[in-house]
Amino acid sequence: MNNTLFLQALRGENRSGRPPVWLMRQAGRYMPAYRALREKHSFLELCHDPSLITKVTLLPIQEFGFDAAIIFSDILLIAEAFGLSLRFEEGVGPIIDPPVRSHADVAKLKGRSLLPTLSCVLEGIRLFKKESSVPLIGFAGAPFTIASYLIEGGSFSGLKYTTEWVERDPASFQALVDLIADYTAAYINLQIEAGIDAVQLFDSWAHLLQPDIFSRFGAGSIKRVLTQLKTCPVILFCRGPEPYYEILSGLQPAGLSIGWDTSMVALRKSLGQGIALQGNLDPNILLTNTSTVKRETLKLLKSMQGDPRFICNLGHGILPATPVENVHAFVECVHS
Ligand code: CP3
Asked: HEC profile for 163-215?
């Protein structure tokens, strides 16, 4: 563990010769200690209790010595602040009820307070900062991704209702993503005040939009968030392909988190040196065995060798079936 590398890499100042490393979903079901806590508490119980938030956030730091922590929570908690019901069903995923489907539904989301619903997250951040000096990443969903969850009503295999809405009434869809952007900015500013060192915005469904539609509603709404933020390095996550990262880099975030099907070496060439690149091992590699993990991690490290703005991570969240010894092999490979 090294508490300076992550923030140095975001500023382009990491000359240590090794990149910082952390994993998306690093506190999750692949960890036996997490599964043991889940025997006693539902996922939302964990998310609502500040001392459990701190405890779970620390689990992967203690076990693997990651160079950054990410606060344990979920991008969908904001649905509760909108007065919608959120639940996670085994084998189904998240369910948001009632879904947001019309202009009239958007009006109902206006004028809400983020507190006290999200104060558990802020208290979790404050507690973590008292207990640990590891850099802490806060996060939120990007407005388009949150909008699509609210509209589809939870887990979905496509963007049926979202796409219909964009076609039918782009102006009221714009009003929805703008509204979510304003709440998201307020929420991140509260996280910054509570003590986070960096923030990651997850636009997990952006790649399902045509690039021109993404420019308008996806990147447009992220820009609306960024212009309202207090000072804090921002990492933008999406799953590519390349044109999406080009659009996002135009918003001048501190860093971009890259999906595993995009070449970071090619992106470094096309985007220049001024932005941190985070990623991008295929999470499926971590399902294999320690020798494959080492070989593929070394390949990634070599391709980005000496890059002062490289943050080693996966191209998406770690999978629940990942063997713990493979995560050890991955982190040891980066650290040495
Ligand atoms: O990265 C971290 O360790 C921080 C915590 C974190 C979680 N979710 C915890 C979680 C973060 C950053 C997220 C982000 C998130 N949540 C995203 C964006 C990133 C991505 O994956 O694209 C999205 C789309 C969600 C929504 C969500 N949360 C889904 C679809 C699901 C169910 C599917 C699944 O993987 O189980 C969740 C549940 C969830 N969020 C779990 C965790 C640890 C599993 C809950 C459990 O214990 O059963």
From this structure: HHHHHHCHHHHHHHHHHHHHHHHHHHHHHHHHCCCEEEEECCCHHHCCHHHHH
In this structure, is residue 85 part of a structural domain?
no
Which structure tokens are listed for 11? 């500023």
Overall pTM > 0.85: yes
By residue range, what is the domain housing residue 288?
5-75+118-148+168-335
Say how many CA atoms lie within 13 Å of 170 toward its Cβ: 6
Which residues have any ligand 1 atom within 6 Å of their CB? 24-29, 38, 43, 70, 72-76, 88, 93-94, 139, 155, 202, 204, 317
155: in domain: no
Decide if 316 contacts 261 (C-beta within 8 A). no
Distance in Å, CA 74 to ligand 1 centroid: 6
> pLDDT of 13-52, one tens digit each?
999 999 999 999 999 999 999 999 999 999 999 999 999 9
Convert the pLDDT of each residue in 173-196 to its tens digit.
999 999 999 999 999 999 999 999
What's the domain count of the chain? 1
Q: Is residue 329 part of a domain?
A: yes
CATH number for the domain spanning 197: value is: 3.20.20.210
Q: In what order do the strands lie in the sheet with 255-257?
A: 69-70, 136-141, 198-202, 234-237, 255-257, 276-281, 310-314
Nearest CA to ligand 1 atom 10: 74
CA dist 320 and 316 (Å) reads: 12
Residue 139 tokens read as 């996060």
CB 231 within 8 A of CB 211: no
Task: Match 């990147």 to its residue by tokens.
Answer: 219
Q: Distance between CA 246 and CA 250 in Å, rounded? A: 7
Other CB atoms within 10 Å distance of the CB of residue 224: 17
Q: What residue's CA is closest to ligand 1, atom 46?
A: 43
197 inside domain? yes
Ligand 1 atom with the shortest distance to the CA of 46: 47
| Ligand 1 midpoint to CA 168 (Å) | 31
